[in-house]
User: Fold these one by one.
Assistant:
Number 1:
Amino acid sequence: MGEPRYRADQVFRGLHQRRLRSFEEMTDLPKALRAKLEEHAAAATITVESRYLSDDGTRRYLMKTRGGHPVEAVFIPTENRDTICFSSQSGCPLKCDFCLTAKLGLISNLTVGEIIEQIVIVLNDVYGVAGATPHGTNLVAMGAGEPFLNFDNLIKALEILSDPNGLFIVPGRVTVSTAGIVPRIYDFAKLERRPNLAISLSAPGDELRDRLMPINKRWNIDELLTAAKEFERTLKRGERFTFEYVLLDGVNDTERHAKELVNLIERHELRRVKINLIPHNPAEQLDYFPSTRESVEQFKRTLEARGISAFVRRPRGRDIFAACGQLAAKEGPNLVRITSLVGV
Ligand code: SF4
């Protein structure tokens, strides 16, 4: 546009560090330039359709891209840190049997801008427009979609999010979760500044995993864990990666499954892995039920007895269908819609 270079820096800061959603608000730019930018570009493309607030403080956002595609993000507050769970795709092409998002199928890959914008919208809602960049916010790519099927956009978005002149959310505060797109795990392992990796496993054997997560028919457990081992080799000191295991009552949560899981991990000589146990979040359209508290605890004890770190992930925002595997639910008994959404 024939403008001096520092103007680009101002626009970048305006969009990312100050989280402004229109060029008009960038009052450090000359009026004529602001008008020119408004004419040629869009500072914001995503709109918020509705926001739901859970009893536990979790907030769920239903948004739409300019093309009308649904996007969801969830804000999860805890005592020490806040986490934003964002989407990498609108809908999801994978057909995990325990997941409601799967019912949507793939609608579109999100652009780099759309991935970032969700996070800006949530931050503005929680901390106020143009509020200070909150330090300690964690990001997880565990919303709708399979992040590794939108690999390039995701990595570019994470690079921008980590910019010190922008939101400055460094890769160490980010976790990307994959259902097992094996070639991308190898690509991910080669990245120099990369986020943490979580692999959604949810079954200790191929027969069951084929049924629960059909992506297993493309890359089976053996191929997946071989890639995980390769990733493990690239970890720096003190780093670990995660297996996520959704516990489904009577399906994959028995003592036998826990023992098979340990054997699997031992057979592949995975030593720097921790297991996140996720009690399933029920939904009417899904045929599964959450494991009982006793089976969750027993499963955890079996892993720990064999020296494997296991954590139970407390479900958050279940009442507003914001919990894992629930994104895409539109209705629910406790769905309280908050309409006063200011400045996002
Ligand atoms: S669990 Fe994740 S990868 Fe599987 S269908 Fe749901 S959104 Fe897609």
Number 2:
Amino acid sequence: MTTQLITKSALALFSYILIITLSLPTWAADSSPKTLNVRGHIYMITGQGGNIGVSSGEDGLFLIDDQYAPATPTILRSLKKLHPNKPRYVINTHWHGDHTGGNENFAREGSVVVAHKNVRTRMSQEQLIKLFRRKVPASPEAALPIITFTQSLSLFLNGEEAEVVHMPHAHTDGDAIVFFKKSNVVHMGDIYFAGTFPFIDTSSGGHIDGMISAVSMVLQRSNPQTLIIPGHGKLSDTKTLEDYLNMLKAARQAVANSMTQNQTLEQVQQQRPLAELAKVWGKGFIKEAAFTQIIYDSLSQ
Ligand SMILES: [Zn+2]
């Protein structure tokens, strides 16, 4: 009985550590915000959570994503160096807390939060992220986007059009990509994890095929001078985005091939269809087995 109990609690502790490990992104190691000038009046702020895109110019500031709530004061200090005013708008690329956690704080500072309507819907209710077995409570009213869209919208600020375009069923079912047309800069949110396997939230309507379509669409709209801000990872160009697209296609094909005889997830994972790709792409937050599961879950739907 005692041994059983110990085994049980050891198992519980192990799965707890596993969940924590899976939930803690590797970029948490260096959490101090850093501001990088991408091009002209477009900046990227790294730190705790997803990369923030910033447009700073004659009309003021607007942000793409706002990381976690505790990071807001340091983000505001970084922004102060770019512009004396508080941000007018915050666009959320999707609902995950490492991109929307600062919404309530920024709304209090006077920012208008804008997102796809599914972002507001998901943030309004408790969510379960299946891969991490993690429940996320509903957000308070003050954190919710107050302007929503279904297909696209444009902000005409700082001398150019920023086109915010919905990509269906990619990382989630509420993703937006922002195209700065004149600056030739794109913010892709978590549709793009630079240099690593991506997390795809299949329990929030994400799908490997939507990821592939969205990345292909961005490449079609780009040219060799385009600069790309990923949700996580380093600032990129189209060459590195093309490598990422090829990886997504190869990984999808490899898992699909392993699934031909109606195998279980465990059987597919044992076959290790992503073993080769993992040598290059499996060193980030999402490892080989988790990415195999993500593609398996997508293709089983
Ligand atoms: Zn995400």
